[in-house]
Amino acid sequence: xxxxxxxxxxxxxxxxxxxxxxxxxxxxxxxxxxxxxxxxxxxxxxxxxxxxxxxxxxxxxxxxxxxxxxxxxxxxxxxxxxxxxxxxxxxxxxxxxxxxxxxxxxxxxxxxxxxxxxxxxxxxxxxxxxxxxxxxxxxxxxxxxxxxxxxxxxxxxxxxx
Length: 161
Prior knowledge:
- Strand 6 (58-65) and strand 7 form a beta hairpin.
- The chain starts with 14 loop residues before the first strand and ends in a 5-residue tail after the last helix.
- The protein has helices spanning 105-114, 120-127, 131-144, 148-156, and strands spanning 15-22, 28-34, 39-40, 47-48, 50-54, 58-65, 68-74, 77-80, 89-91.
- The protein has a four-stranded mixed β-sheet with strand order 1-2-7-6. The protein has a three-stranded antiparallel β-sheet with strand order 5-8-9, with no helix packed on it.
- The protein is globular, with a radius of gyration of 18 Å.
- It is of the alpha+beta class.
- 25% of the residues lie in helices and 29% in strands.
């Protein structure tokens, strides 16, 4: 007997879903690839579209689906600049995740909303993430500007408790 399935949109630009699976811990793993056709050269700032390969697999936390922790798994694309001396390569940056963050922007906003009426420690326990991850989402929002209503709700809800 086959299992019933549901399709849920990711609402993430420039990606294609390759595979979905549930790991032994019950987490949903969604393997994706970028459909963005290039990158901005880290040296000259020009647009580059000469594909040069992939980096290692990266997993980032995304919004929960049906109560399951969810991770997006992808291999960042690398591009080579033919205009710069020595033809450096640049890793593609994606609009939905900061390169150094273990979360998508959507998940960071989710963490902020969870802070309404809760403490950082409460959210850390509920979401099964470190205290620093929740604090980091809040500080990042302050630095880069979360939507004012989300930030106001999080701050009023005891973010610094």
